[in-house]
Amino acid sequence: MNQITGTTRLTGLLGHPVAHSISPMMHNKSFQKLGLDYAYLAFDVLPDQLEDTVKGLRAMNVRGFNLTMPHKTAICSFMDELTTASRLAGAVNTVINENGKLIGHTTDGIGYFSSLEKEAGFRVTGKKMTLLGAGGAANAILVQAALNDMKEISVFKRKNATFAAAESFCKNVATETGCSIHIFEMEDSHALKEEIASSDILTNATNVGMAPDIDRCLVDKSMLYPELFVSDIIYEPRETMLLSLAKNIGCQTQNGLYMLLYQGAASFECWTGCEMPISFIKETCYTK
Ligand code: NAP
To answer: Which of 75, 209, 211, 248 could form a disulfide with 240, with the two C-beta atoms 3.0–4.6 Å apart?
Structure first.
């Protein structure tokens, strides 16, 4: 553990619950490894305490903090400024305190694409993605893909009460970024097959396949082909049914294990200006 001194800058996590989070271990080990005078703590904050907590953190001049469920959307209204990605996604997972000004960032999408590029050599520029899901994680991925110059994105979402809102979200991101984005009903398996057939990457950002519900998958194997990159942001289990089908067909695949690591690394860099020691953190905080 680093020595806490009179000059140690505080960073941390606000969420509910937070006890399970590996972020404190990841950040504190990184501070220690690089000899940085920072500390990271997790705070269990209920939704109705968020505003007071942010006021307190601002008054104490902390360096910054992360947000996890259920605060990523509500926090936006307490920020002095939002990055373009945060404004478009309507979510913040990282706050930086720049001399009293609180700036809201989102590093979830950055983390996802950094993990694809650095761990699997996949670059988004000019590519087409089929994205399954339109929840918080899917929206962060969609926005970052569009900002990273992905050419086209086809989103599949269940036809339910939130479909119209997802449709207008996609339309707004398309208008603001110039990316070609279309939304389809998940139940339309013909469209799903067609869109996957013309995609470079298929990304599952739904809960389908996550433990304990591990025996399900939203596509069938006739929709997959070896040239397709298949990514599942679920990391428990490490190999979802989707990834298992894709591997059997010969697709390059990646699970969600390192998305969290790279989004944390992007927050770390925002606060400290230093790169997180990724290899060291993989060795000390991750079991494959
Ligand atoms: P969320 O906001 O609740 O969104 C869940 C999405 O999954 C929604 O679009 C929902 O569809 C869809 N979905 C759920 N059940 C479905 C079903 N049976 N059929 C079709 N679609 C279904 O959750 P989230 O925060 O985005 O998280 C989604 C997944 O990503 C989770 O498995 C989570 O563990 C994972 N995740 C991983 C990381 C990482 O670091 N690797 C980070 C964040 C999240 P509707 O829109 O129709 O309701």
So the answer is: 209
